[in-house]
Description:
With 195 residues, the protein is α+β, with helices and mostly antiparallel strands. The protein has helices at residues 10-19, 22-25, 35-44, 64-73, 76-83, 121-139, 152-168, 174-188, and strands at residues 27-30, 47-50, 55-58, 88-92, 98-102, 117-118. The strands form two sheets. The protein has a three-stranded antiparallel sheet with strand order 1-4-5. Helix 4 (64-73) packs antiparallel against helix 6 (121-139), helix 6 (121-139) packs across helix 7 (152-168) and helix 7 crosses helix 8. The radius of gyration is 19 Å and the shape is globular.
Amino acid sequence: MLLRLKLRHQTWLKAFFSTVDCTQHVLALLSPRPFEALAAHLSRCTQAQWNQGREQGVLRYYDPRLFLPVSEALTPAQGRVLHGPVIAWHWLDRDHRAQHLLGHYSRHSDAPTAEGFLFDPAQVASLKAWADADWHRREHSATPQHYGLSREEGLMRHLFHSQMAACQQGLQAPEERQAFIRQWLLDNSPFVVDE
Length: 195
């Protein structure tokens, strides 16, 4: 849901923030673009295709937990499309720390037109690795302390790297993949608390 807020909405906004998990549901942006044009642009950015356009789905870039991984997976041209009408994005990360990312807005040029994104295999592997890392975190009730880390964001990036290492090894079978990831985490973590 995209909302246009003005300064007079501060009381409502405070009440809203107290009722939702902002680390999952609130991604704020600043943009001078007309609201309807911005809404249409951002809606088109949710359209993703891969496998040479034979498969498609929804790109959930608007989820604060996925916003940075999606932004990092985009090509420079795709990044200019998503971030083109935006001055800055703001969100709370998994550690409830304020984060921001500058957009590519320029008042001297229009943002590139969004028609959805076509992802290559490397981009798909990166996005899938984030999803698999989150699955691993939930399935194993993993906490940063399990791997000698201090922050949730650090844990997710660490689990992402374990998933990417499994991808680079070409491991697809669940048993092989999980065994590899378990060993990778043992070898690449400051220490590991038995799960």
